[in-house]
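Hi everyone,

Forwarding the result from last night's run.
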Amino acid sequence: MILCLNSNLSLAYHLKKMYRDFNRNCSYADAPAQLDQLIEAFEAANLYCYKDFVSLLKNWRTEIINSFQRPYDNYKQSNALTEHFNSRLRELITVSNGFANFERFRARAIYSLNNHTFYVLTSSLSSNKRKGKTRGPYNKLKEVLLEDDRNNHVDTMNDD
């Protein structure tokens, strides 16, 4: 087996396995004592590859212990739901090429991210139009002139 080749490699593997078991099976009440034992084991091994990891465990000790609280039907707390909604919002911004009106963006985001929202027409609906300068009138004559220029350009190309 490859672990027999080097004692440091074998030690590093067993330390990693200890940490994974700690993460999977530890309870909130046992977490402080087990985490301290784990930190001592990593420090006693004195492996260069785990030097930064040991400082991480020491610096984030309180947060690591608090992560073992399981108030939701024995599930660990996680920010996965928040990250999911943030990625969906980024996707919405990307697909829409940005929104000029924040109120419309907010309404679209709430509607598209909430599976339990149903669109209903009522008399209380109002527009979220952006305040500011209105667009100028449509100049139909200008469009006709542009269309004629395009046709003339195509005709001159066909004459060659």
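The chain has a mean pLDDT of 79.

Cheers,
N.
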